[in-house]
Fold this sequence. Notes:
Distance between the termini: 51 Å
Shape: globular
CATH topology of the largest domain: Quinone Oxidoreductase, Chain A, domain 1
Number of domains: 2
Amino acid sequence: xxxxxxxxxxxxxxxxxxxxxxxxxxxxxxxxxxxxxxxxxxxxxxxxxxxxxxxxxxxxxxxxxxxxxxxxxxxxxxxxxxxxxxxxxxxxxxxxxxxxxxxxxxxxxxxxxxxxxxxxxxxxxxxxxxxxxxxxxxxxxxxxxxxxxxxxxxxxxxxxxxxxxxxxxxxxxxxxxxxxxxxxxxxxxxxxxxxxxxxxxxxxxxxxxxxxxxxxxxxxxxxxxxxxxxxxxxxxxxxxxxxxxxxxxxxxxxxxxxxxxxxxxxxxxxxxxxxxxxxxxxxxxxxxxxxxxxxxxxxxxxxxxxxxxxxxxxxxxxxxxxxxxxxxxxxxxxxxxxxxxxxxxxxxxxxxxxxxxxxxxxxxxxxxxxxxxxxxxxxxxxxxxxxxxxxxxxxxxxxxx
Length: 401
């Protein structure tokens, strides 16, 4: 049989290209080694519960680019946070499901199988058509919003504005320890607290619960900006937080922690990572009528939504925060809630501080990809001094199972 002429072959190839472009504008799969990938290894949960809910699969759905500003990242390391343990148990399920499906089109439980993991460090494997700031093979890090599939997988898809170039001075394992706690602290201290490198000099800051992930980052950032930082932690962690730059340390296990704190000079800002009973006395430690702020990261926002539903939960939340804010405003201090907010631009600034030697990664323990349940067990014990990181793959190699 006679082969088609060269011009006919070119015409046929052109038609195939046109069809492929039309087909791939909405769902573009990353192609590796000239084969389209549809599945990948990942740790998932199929229901909310304890560690028993974690399941390893090699058939998790491969992420696809659905919007032109998205990127697919090959995950080298994933950082774990207390939020992952809470999400595994169903915390925030009502609100996060509504965020994933605003029009409520999908059936209940459509978030499963759910991939946890809020921190990622890796390499960009594919860029959407509108992505200009990144290219394939760029090393990046990011904090993943809790309504998106997480980093305990070989690949993850993110918006380009959530991603930043990874600090050159850090390995992927070290880099995965920073983004989620960094963007949480940045959102609380900068966006809500109004702090910056230009106005922080000699400000007195109190961090309640300073040896965890957010605390260890906040200490370093505030010290780099010239603040005076007081921290509460256990006596065992005192040397650790002083090594990060804390000026004054109070042991909260030695008795009522408010007693030694009330003897100190008043503070310009308090960052509360503890919650509970601390609100009762912490606001009295602020300088009144000076613009001083108390910012707590322990809020009932998602809990209210889970318990009361979206509408009633939002009303209850608004009433609670308004009442507390007005009550404390009468005392001359500002009461605020702090929230995580994903931000590539914030990570850009944090990267510069890391590469300048002002902030270091604090990794307490690393686990292999096959040890994710053990990593969660470690996280659940609490009293962390730094971050728990899972190494998903080594460089460009296959998953480190």
